[in-house]
Amino acid sequence: MRVLGIDCGSRVTGYGVIDSNGADCLFICCGAIRSKSSDPLADRLKTIYSGIVQIIRELEPEAAAFESLFYATNVQTALKLGHVRGVSMVAAAEANLPIYEYSPLEVKSAVTGYGRAEKPQVQQMVRALLKLNAPPQPYDASDALAVAICHIHTNRFNKSLAAHV
Hints:
This protein is of the alpha/beta class. Helices cover 51% and strands 21% of the residues. It has helices spanning 41-59, 75-94, 104-112, 119-129, 139-163, and strands at 2-7, 12-20, 25-34, 63-67, 99-102. Helix 1 (41-59) runs parallel beside helix 2.
């Protein structure tokens, strides 16, 4: 299974693609879609949408995994993040990808074993789990890979449960 993990942000949206046979995860690629904070929001959303569409076309993932919204104290930030998640999900839905969402706690727990892990801890565990020589950069990309890894682990767990029912 090839999974696209997406870490949404209005200035930097991270992405990470991994393959898995259900047990092991293999790194395919990761990176960040960057938009200029000086651009109008609509232009930034278009850049992010186009970037995700291109990644999906080139790498042909079978599923897309997102981190669910978290509580934000700044309403404007939460609204912008919601817009980014919306265009990102539309890009995945248009490609007929099944879409999965995981809370930040679920993602961190799946990767580090601790739901309150800091970004450097997540980044180092992603490096170790994917057997990379260096930590994936930027944090947005390592967070996106963590979401993809979380999906693989959760999917494997759910299939295991279903087999025993």
